[in-house]
Write a structure and sequence with these properties.
Elements lengths: L2 H20 L7 E5 L5 H9 L4 E4 L2 H10 L6 E4 L8 H7 L2 E5 L2 H10 L7 E6 L13 H12 L4 E7 L8 H20 L6 E3 L6 H6 L4 E4 L1 H4 L7
Helix pairs in contact: 4-5, 6-7
Bound molecules: pyridoxal-5'-phosphate.
Length: 230
């Protein structure tokens, strides 16, 4: 068994245990394997172990992997910041974009999505803990942006995602995740019919699942430690 296969099994067990603990069905939480900085070989190993959805932060790096692994039929999520000059690549190569936090970016993605592809699946990124330098809309701005994004023809709004700062313990993490869940619930109460609440990573997926996450994004716990890209 490869290390990646073994790690994936461990993560799947953590997911299952967290769902049991929270009284939720295991099928309610999807696992996104975050493969940034790892090569096509690592992704191929994860695929061989049953993983089909992958998250990438750096567009250029992702396009290379997506192209090299076309034959595997994987699902690719953009989870990194998107500059205007990268929207075309994102629209052409990815299946999902989780980091939409400006209408202008969403409009470009919709305009540039090739006609032969299904709509791009989109999450609004919410800056839940108010970090001034972080990307994401503030919670009180999420509904207005979500309504505008939902109206774009080649995008399909699926939910919200958030990358809160790491918290020291379960209770502190839960407080932040609960506030993100509240944003998600308020958008649904406003009629948006969202099914995806993307929150939780290697270190805090249990707390995220406890608070209603439907998709955890896990890198380190599957692929190992990353060498920092400057
Ligand atoms: C890198 C990254 C992850 C994965 O983080 P790990 O701590 O390695 O699990 C998840 N989400 C986003 C947006 C990331 O950039």
């Amino acid at each position: 068994m490869t290390m990646i296969e073994k790690n994936l099994q461990t993560v799947q067990s953590r997911l299952a245990a967290a769902c049991r603990e929270a009284g939720r069905a295991g099928s309610e939480v999807a696992l996104l394997a975050v493969s940034k900085t790892f090569g096509a070989d690592a992704v191929t190993q994860a695929h061989a172990a049953g993983q089909s959805a992958f998250g990438e932060n750096y567009i250029q790096e992702a396009v290379q992997k997506i192209t090299a692994l076309r034959h595997l039929g994987l699902q690719w999520h953009c989870i990194g910041p998107i500059q205007s000059n990268k929207t075309r690549l994102v629209a052409e190569y990815f299946d999902w974009v989780q980091t939409v936090d400006r209408l202008k970016i969403a409009q470009r993605l919709s305009e540039q999505r090739p006609g032969h592809l299904p709509p791009l699946q989109v999450c609004i990124q919410v800056n839940a803990d108010g970090g001034a330098t972080k990307s994401g809309v503030l919670p009180q701005e999420a509904l207005a942006l979500a309504q505008q994004v939902a109206a774009l023809p080649k995008l399909r709004l699926r939910g919200i995602m958030s990358i809160p700062e790491p918290e020291p313990d379960f209770a502190a993490a839960c407080a932040v995740f609960a506030s993100i869940k509240a944003v998600f619930d308020s958008l649904n109460a406003a009629g948006l019919a969202l099914d995806t609440l993307s929150m939780g990573m290697s270190a805090d997926l249990e707390a995220a699942i406890h608070c209603g996450s439907t998709m955890v994004r896990v890198g380190t716990a599957i692929f190992g430690g990353r060498v920092k890209i400057p």
